[in-house]
Amino acid sequence: MLGAAVLFHTMDLVLGAINAGNMPVTNFGQSLSFLAWLTAIVSFVLISRMRMQVLGAFVAPGVLAAVAAAMLLEHRSRLVIPDSLRSAWLPVHVTLAFLGDALFMVAAGVSLAYLVYESRLKAKRPMAPTGQTTPSLEKLDRINYRLLGWGFVMLSLGIVSGALWAEATWGHFWSWEPQESWSLVTWLLYAGLLESRVAAGWRGRRAAALTLAVFTVLVGSFLSVSLLFPGKHGGSFG
Amino acid sequence: MDEKLLIAGINHRTAPVAVREQLAYGDSEIAAALGRLKDRAPALAECALISTCNRVEIIGVASDPARAIDEAIGFLAADREVDAALFAGALYRFEGRQAARHLFRVGASLDSMVVGEPQILGQLKLAYSHAAEAGTAGLVLHRAFHRAFSVAKRVRKATLIGRGSVSVSSAAVRLAGQIFDTLGDKTVMLMGAGQMAELTARQLHALGAETLLVTSRTFDHAAALARALGGTAVPFENHRPYLKIADIVIGSLSAARPVLEAGDFEAILRERRYRPMFLIDMGVPRNFDDRLNSMENVYLYDIDDLGAVVTESLGERAREADKAETIVADALDSFMRWMDGLDLVPAIKDIRVSIEQLRDTELGRHRAWLATMEPAERRRIEALTRTLVNKLLHRILAGLRSSGAGSPDPVYTAEIARRLLCGDLAAEGPALNPAVSGLDFEIDLDSDDDEEP
What we know:
The complex is a heterodimer. Chain A contains 7 helices and no strands. By secondary structure, chain A is an all-alpha fold. Chain A has one domain. Chain B is built from 18 helices and 10 strands. Chain B has helices at about 15-25, 30-40, 65-80, 85-90, 95-105, 120-135, 140-160, 165-180, 195-205, 220-230, 240-245, 265-270, 305-310, 315-365, 365-370, 375-400, 410-420, 440-445, and strands spanning about 5-10, 45-50, 55-60, 90-95, 185-190, 210-215, 230-235, 250, 275-280, 300. In chain B, the strands form 2 sheets. A 6-stranded parallel β-sheet of chain B has the order 7-6-5-8-9-10. A 4-stranded antiparallel β-sheet of chain B has the order 2-3-1-4, sandwiched between helices. In chain B, helix 5 crosses helix 7 (about 140-160) and helix 6 (about 120-135) packs antiparallel against helix 7 (about 140-160).
């Protein structure tokens, strides 16, 4: 199911890209769509490689919400990207940044699953022994850690590539516009999250709850930057 | 006469482990407790005490069962220093047939948390041997316990009920699988040597747990068990440092107070860097403070929690349990017949003595004539008269015992038979011949229901 959905979504994105002559990430709707696609791919890989079928139940609603929102917003505005920004940096920067977001989203889904299972075990109402489909807490925790790690790497690379791109285009690395500031904030938060695990051994329930909390901040920043403070990233390219 | 079997107690269905552990007795305490029980409960003619993870029961015999049970409950509350109100609601009391039925069902593991688990039989045998050694088991308890054992044996042989016997330990193992991804890098610590705990440790080890630590109050026990399981023994005084590497801890020590307290556990968790810990408490009284469950990444399951997790193939189990119940019911009928027969014992004794005397008298009268005979002929005549007496007695006994529903009260019938057959002798009361003990009659009464397969 998910595999087929990813396939169709891919076709749609490719068509959109050919149509526009660049990556279809120029407005909020398209960005959401792209993000949902990446998230679905990450989930798909996890499900097929790690036998984490149950993950679908926790990530799919998020992907569905993003896709639905994207559909509603799809044709609202279609911007043409100025020539000055048409460079090889565009796909690199956008993909890295969104891949980071997608990994964080899946990590949040995994954390949610962790919290649900954990509270059931604590309450002496464990999952029915259905065999392989219920991942252990240890596994969920480990996958959460890995996703956060890779997400963090992608986010870092996304920020660096953005800075380099800005330098190449406008002559300065950093301009403190909303998306940049928020990225820095989320980067620091995720750095703290990883540090707490490595240094203080915060794992399990605490790590899962923090992952969800930081992800909420990430969603907040994504929405607010896109909808409230449109800077360069929001579609008004200055 | 007219003594009745009685049982008063609590079990896993009526009382949570928090209550059971307050009434529980350790193995070594039972003999002494029976002595105190005898003193406190004069209405009890015979008594035994069974205390396991899942039940605490007093099994007794009394002619006034209601009073005896009240005394027994009073003893339990006073002896364990527990307010009787605490367990009053959980208490069940059985008399006569109900009590025998309960005892047989317990022995057959039909009353167990995990129906069919085999340990209860051993525990019942232990309770019996304590009572036998303490001298508190008499004719009725001996009989009742032996019946219970033979019912258990028959049930085990004739049904598949024993299949679920390892369910509690496998529930524990399954839970471990929901917490840990792999056992390959995990350390299991076994505290104490309860059978179920040992079985769990064995399974975890067989599934690949990397290290198995065994500790016990007596180091020799720990060492022997560790050798048997392929683990490492740890002296009990020195077990704390090992907790920080133990991912799964199984407790089955007999201890009045929890061995692991919540207070100082935080330090251990910090040292473990909050790696998850699975605490399996199979002890009653419980070995681990139940507040540990609220600590971060600690999962504590006690014996009741595990029992609740056990999911079974209900259909098959129910069918096998039905078969077992039939076996219990059969044994119950024969036991109750025997109990009823006990009421007839004095009358039967008199009848027997009276007829034996008749024979002796007649033989005595013809002694001179008998003396003229060949020894072989004389023996033949003696045998003939003995056979005649036995045949007659047997017919009378069979007639008394076969009195089913609708027939007159067997005790009354026996009294009439006694008057008819004993004549004047009846007035002199029972036990005319002290050489004829009650045990002879037990064997007689038994003759047709000892058909052990």
